[in-house]
Each structure stands twice: as structure tokens, then as C-alpha cells.
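This follows on from our talk about sequence and fold. Go ahead and set the record down below:
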Amino acid sequence: MSSSNAILTIAIPTYNRAKFLFKNLSYLKTQYNSNFNILIQDNASTDNTRDIVKKFIQMDLPINYIRNKKNFGWAKNFELCYKNNKSSYLMILGDDDYILNGGVDIILDNLKNYKPSLLFLKAFSTKKIGRASCRERV
């Protein structure tokens, strides 16, 4: 299922990381609008990745789920994301990376307003170190 109006495909290459994929898709579900599609490029996962994706498809999230017949390795799986993209823009998102609420709208606004060839995004991660947390710019 996909929206023909979508200008952005958020591609998520994955392999055996269903718990991360669930959280990732949960964030995307809260931000869904008809201007983006989701491509899950599954590298022949043996965990419950397929069940997680099916659950979100049933919630009407526009997911194109493609499961490789065998594990091609991460580089080929990334290449398949590019080849299977149907939108004007492609964002490859790690299966354990999340676009926080409001982030998709910011990305889409920039794509529509500036029509860039490349959009570079700043990211941060939060890691617990003992009792303290730190933010790390990537």
C-alpha cells in the first residue's frame, strides 16, 4: 500500500531486529501523512519482523514490505532500498533509528520548499552511562 502523492520514501533496511523496527514504526505511525511512504527491505529475517510489519499494515500505515529470499548482506540490502524507491526522494533510516514527533514534517517542508538534491540531517543519540545520560551529536 502506498500513496501516489508521496514525495518521500522512508526506507528501512532490516535484519532480525523486530523490537527496534516496532519502535521505529510506532514513531512513524504518529506522524503519518500522505506525503510519505515506508519501504521495509527485509534481508531474510528469521525473527518476527514480518509479523511486526503486518501489524502496522493493518493499522493503515503505507508500507511496501519486501523480503529478500536470502540475506544479501547490508550493502546489497541498502542498494535494494534505492532500487525499490518509487518517490522523488529517498531517506534510508536504520531500523533502530527514530524520527521523533514532528521530524517528518520538518523533512517534508524542506523537500517541498527547497527541492534539494541532498538534504543532510543532524542527529543525536541518548546513551546511558552509569547513572548519567549524555547526548552525542552525530
Summary: The beta strands are 8-14, 36-42, 63-67, 89-92, 124-129, 132-137. Confidence is low (pLDDT under 50) at residues 130-138. The longest helix spans residues 18-30. The longest strand covers residues 8-14.
